[in-house]
Amino acid sequence: MPKINFIDVHGETRTVEVEVGATVMEAAIRNAIPGVEAECGGACACATCHVYVDEAWIDAVGQAQPMEEDMLDFAFDIRPTSRLSCQIRMRDDLDGLVVRTPARQT
Ligand code: FES
Predict the structure, then answer these.
(1) Which of the residues 16, 20, 22, 66 has the least number of beta carbons within 10 Å of its own beta carbon?
(2) Would you place residue 4 in the very low, low, confident or very high pLDDT band (cuts 50, 70, 90)?
(3) Helix (H, G, I), strand (E, B) or coil at 63
(4) 50: CA distance to ligand 1 center in Å?
(5) Model pLDDT, residue 51
């Protein structure tokens, strides 16, 4: 199974395995990753699953769709690498993905 590396605001890394097809948000919630809340359960309706995708992974992950971009406006401290983790679905080629969690959600 592919792995995701979550780096928190203090620089601590937590590595979790996730099945292909699950979202980065689902991996975070199942593994109690601090900093990801996901209040809407993955419906792209809350922006509390905001993460920063590591620069090296931006191209592989791809761009946010318009609905996600609209919802990101409600997230805290948006950056060019911001994504909603419920909108990133894991694939084998994303094995080793690195995302950072923000200092806080909305
Ligand atoms: Fe609500 Fe991602 S879980 S927008």
Answers:
(1) 66
(2) very high
(3) coil
(4) 8
(5) 98
